[in-house]
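From the pipeline queue, job 12 of 40. The input is one protein chain; the requested action is below.

Action: predict structure.
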Amino acid sequence: MRHIFLIGPGNVGKTTVGAALAAKLGVPFVDLDQEYMERIGHIGRYIDTEGYAVYRQRNSALLGELLDEAQGRSVFALSSGFLAYQASINEVAADADRIARHGVSVLLLPSRTAEESADLIVARALSRPYLKANPSREREKFLQRFAQYQEQASDIQIYSMAAPDVIADQIIERLP
């Protein structure tokens, strides 16, 4: 069983592309953030009360639970910092290994250049009123992680600002 794991920063389109990809492949789509919200609670409030490190551990455990529950191949959209949290390098390495054992990882980024990618990511964050995004903080966070995302051991890297269906087709063309 080879799952497809979409990785990358927030607001890159993992959820939208993931849903389109799953529909094209005829497999279930699992959004890790949505599952977290349904099973555990609001991510922001959880981080505020428990801290990011505890959230990170619980999020990792949730992925393990979801993999155990999976019936056949699925497309997973992972949380934005899932493989980019530097404070827990050993945990991130263990998650990267788990992903490699269970499937194919696909990195989604809008562009190969950090500045062009940041422009799109921040614009998307600002268009979502429920995020309460601070433009300069979002930009700084993204630019700090841009190289980390590119350096992640992803099987496939997609750099595109195309429509979600087009990106889904690009992924399908490159699947092993």
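Job complete. The chain has a mean pLDDT of 89.
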